[in-house]
Amino acid sequence: MSQSAAPVLEARQISKRFPGVVALDGVSLALLPGEVHALVGENGAGKSTLIKVFTGVHRPDGGELIYNGSPTAFGTPLDAQRAGISTIYQEVNLVPMMSVARNLMLGREPRGRLGVIDTARMYGEAERILAGYGVVTDVRRPLRTLGMGVQQMVALARAVAIDARVVIMDEPTSSLEPREVETLFSVIRKLKDDGIAVVYVSHRLDELYEVCDRVTVLRDGRVAHTGPLAELERLKLIALMLGRDLDEVRTGGLTRFSRDRRQARDRDGAQPAVRAEGLTRRQVLRGVDVSVWPGEVVGLGGLLGAGRSETAKGIVGALPLDAGRVVVAGRPLRTGSTTAAIRAGVSLLPEDRKAEGIIPALSVRENIALAALPSLSRAGVVSDAKIDKIVDVFMRRLRIKAASPDQPVQELSGGNQQKVLLARWLAIRPKILLLDEPTRGIDVGAKAEVQALVDELAEEGLGVLLISSDLEELVEGADRILVLREGEVVGELSGDDVTEDKIMASIAERGAESDG
Amino acid sequence: MAEAVAPPGRRVLAWAQEYGVYAAVGVLLLFNVLFTPHFLDVANFRTQLVQVAPIVIVSLGMALVIGTQGIDLSVGSVMSLAAALVALYLGYGAWPALLVALAGGAVAGTAGGALVAYVGVQPIVATLALLVGVRGLANVLVPQLVEFRNPDLIALGSASLSGVPVIVVIAAVLTLLMAFLVRRTTFGRQVVAIGGNRAASELSGLPVRRVLLLVYVISGVLAALAGVLATARLQASDPTSLGLFIELSAITAVVVGGTPLSGGRIRVLSTVMGALLMQLLSATLIKHNLPQSWTQIVQAVIILAAVYATRERGTR
Ligand SMILES: Nc1ncnc2c1ncn2[C@@H]1O[C@H](COP(=O)(O)OP(=O)(O)OP(=O)(O)O)[C@@H](O)[C@H]1O
Ligand SMILES: [Mg+2]
């Protein structure tokens, strides 16, 4: 990248206030052509807000935007896109009911004579484009039937296909597997070579160091630091984000999963907390068996589309099954009923927080209390006192940043929404918790807290099924790992075998066989 | 387009969203006090309120249904069914007849609710089928207008409790009950959550289907009650025309009250205000001798204004 080049996009002293919060307070940032610029900060620091100011979603309350050397104010995201700023937002915002191909080609569908969309060509082209990203899928299917990871890849392919001078990515890897992340990085490197400026937001520090040239750290809506990334020590970066002393971070540490891995315990006589047998669903699951003992954290490994989320959904009854049964503490569970599962103490934190998690217009308070309502009410009348107490406990414990408990949850930053969902599940004191990407979009500090919390609960006897696209998290958190591939359990690792390499090997080995 | 900020405009819109109906009702009242002769007469007030009471009762159920992203087009037909059942069973006394009519409303609601919640039919289609079918049934049961002389039933329609018509008292009590239901009970919270995000509600273990079914049953029972009250006031059962187009008035009241059709939010008191506003509006225009077509045009303008104000709140 040429340092001397003029910035392609520049924010000067941008301010943005929302009722009760100052999201951005005099933020300046210059984006040079051909650079990958990391934008980091705690949950709620203002990253997504800054991006939305760049793209015309929000209008700043103060300051100005300079694009290509002249002051600009985009009226709508479409204006920004037409001007050459292409964005992948934090919450995938494609059209869930439309086909993958339509989503990918929206607005530039190949047309035949009479201007009618040439669907055959559209499908062919969509398939070809996606194959280039290592995604093989039926492009005719509605987008919402695909996992979050694939949806993110579609969003990426769409963003890059648009002729852009600036590409902005807000946590593009939060649902991606290592393999997809690699694909993404090669795309980013290519963009860079073409002289396109990239803004990259992520809470995964490894990734930043791998692709980013410079970094801007936001803290509470202000710029805490800007500079080249390579010369910034990792702990220093964390300290800047959290606003703590370097020494404090070094010693106080970022406790992650701290427990010693339990060896396969003596299970004679004891019952698993949950045992799923032969979970089967056409084209998705092919006879998956999973057991979780009380106090155990079982990880599910595998690539995108291996059936991990589906397994979790099958267990709680959110995915209709063709065959299989679930036994909780010795008692078979009524199939196909999440209500029954939750009453039996099994609950699922879903991976897609926008579509399946938050109730956007309801307050933080109502969202946290939602699942626990029956226990927070008497004779069907809710008790505000009890709700306030629980909400207060979890907002403090998970450090949920909101203007007040009555703020609509849709106004929270992505990471804080995730914390609200965690609180919803912890509030019902489940016996078995299925966590699908529990730390998705959560900042480093909070991530450690969440992991510590999971640990603590497991110590108290909670059984946990952990799904994570972050291999490191899986390895550190799980006592035992089941590797899935194409809807089947193809391997089990426990004790000292739980390492990133062994998981990768297990996935690959079977892969080689069946690709054979 | 480069202007820096325009929060005043937004604040006005937000305010209009919250309190617009109340303000509009206030303005209209003031206008009438100043310019409409005899407006402050007790008799006039009573007439207005008695006329609007059945609409209010139906709107309460409608607000609940709309809160779940649904709609209930069958309310008018359920009113006519209730009128028919009351006439048929009046021989057993007013109260048994009332109960049978309410049960009829519950059955119709169960049918609609079951189609929506368990079969997965779209609310507009399911209740449209009922709109046609139930009125047909009512007409078969009681083909022509039937007058009656049961004193209890007539009293229900025309008696007063310390000066306030019983019908109005009932509507007021139901309004308070509904507000309590929505704000203070688990059921109410679940209704709103389901309207806000059904998939998330299911994963949170809410009994989604049961709640949806119950919502339509409540709407059916309320419509049936409105049908009985309207019949009592008419002192005649008229299934052919009773409740015709009331679903439109109810939906209008809900929308004008600021409850979004996209679900996830229910405003009970504002819905009642919405019904009052529309009533007051047509009364005002009639009193000032404007033709009916004018009333309709003004109503249309108000509906559009309400829809504009409740449009999904912009994020900018
Ligand atoms: N539409 C909105 N209305 C009110 N407050 C908002 C809105 N959008 C964002 N905020 C607030 O602005 C602050 C910054 O949020 P932002 O989404 O920019 O954080 P972020 O840095 O992207 O965090 P994360 O890492 O969790 O995604 C937060 O306190 C958030 O609650
Ligand atoms: Mg964000």
What does this structure look like?
Chain A: Keywords: ATP-binding, Cell membrane, Membrane, Nucleotide-binding, Repeat, Translocase, Transport. The complex is a heterodimer of chains A (516) and B (316). Chain A has 516 residues and is α/β, with parallel strands linked by helices. Chain A contains 18 helices and 22 strands. In chain A, strands 6-7-8-3-9-10 form a six-stranded mixed β-sheet, with helices on both faces. The longest helix of chain A has 16 residues. The C terminus of chain A is likely disordered. Chain B has a domain of 204 residues. In chain B, the strands form two sheets. A two-stranded antiparallel sheet of chain B has the order 1-4. A two-stranded antiparallel ribbon of chain B has the order 2-3. Chain B is globular, with a radius of gyration of 20 Å. The N terminus of chain B is likely disordered. The interface between A and B is medium-sized, with 39 and 29 residues. The complex binds adenosine-5'-triphosphate and magnesium ion. The site of magnesium ion has 6 residues of chain A, from helix 1.
Give the helices and strands, then pairings.
The complex is a heterodimer of chains A (about 525) and B (about 325).
Chain A: E1 9-18, E2 21-31, E3 36-40, H1 47-54, E4 62-67, E5 70-72, H2 77-82, E6 85-88, H3 100-105, H4 119-132, H5 148-161, E7 166-170, H6 178-193, E8 197-201, H7 205-211, E9 214-219, E10 222-228, H8 234-242, H9 246-252, E11 274-281, E12 285-292, E13 297-301, H10 308-316, E14 323-328, E15 331-332, H11 338-343, E16 346-349, H12 353-357, H13 364-369, E17 377-378, E18 381-382, H14 384-397, H15 414-426, E19 432-436, H16 444-459, E20 463-467, H17 471-477, E21 480-485, E22 488-494, H18 500-515
Parallel strand pairs in A: 3-8, 3-9, 6-7, 7-8, 13-20, 13-21, 16-19, 19-20
Antiparallel strand pairs in A: 1-2, 1-4, 4-5, 9-10, 11-12, 11-14, 14-15, 17-18, 21-22
Chain B: H1 7-35, H2 42-67, H3 75-89, H4 94-119, H5 123-141, E1 146-147, H6 151-158, E2 160-161, E3 164-165, H7 166-184, H8 186-196, H9 198-203, H10 208-234, E4 236-237, H11 246-256, H12 268-287, H13 292-310
Antiparallel strand pairs in B: 1-4, 2-3
The complex binds adenosine-5'-triphosphate and magnesium ion (MG).
